[in-house]
Amino acid sequence: MLWLTRIIVGAVFLMNVSCALAFILQPEKYSPGFEVAGVPGMIYVQGMGILFLMWNATYPLVIFHPIRYRVLFVVVLIQQAIGFTGETWLWLTLPSGHSPLHATGLRFMLFDGIGLIAMAGAYWLLRRHRCHANL
After folding, report:
1. What is the mean pLDDT, run by run of 10 residues, along the chain of 135 residues?
2. What is the dihedral of CA 10, 12, 15, 20, to 10 degrees?
3. Rounded to 5, what percent of the chain is helix, strand, coil?
4. Is 24:43 a contact under the CB 8 Å cutoff?
5. pTM, whole model, 2 decimals?
6. In the chain, what are the domain boundaries?
């Protein structure tokens, strides 16, 4: 169960970091999806990439040992839930006429929702396995 948890959290981490690096290194590819342009748009997208890296600073210890760092694992789950909830709220309140933002928001929601479900499932299985091992 430990390795399955590491693989799931590691996969979400790698996807997050790859997205962060793409935003930082090639912001011009992603700024249209946020309806921003020029230098301000590039800086905005790069800033989001930096925020993604900050958000993922908690993942490596959880990947290393999800049982030992189970409190940090809960923090990771809370971060993911906040991201998914916030993205969903933004998407639901987005006025019509913003197709690029709508599509971008949907992609974020899908990825973060799937990541949250996968990591919460891994956490639950790990806790369940650990409880049965202690009987």
Report:
1. 93 97 98 96 98 96 95 97 98 97 96 97 87 56
2. -100
3. 85, 0, 15
4. no
5. 0.88
6. 2-133
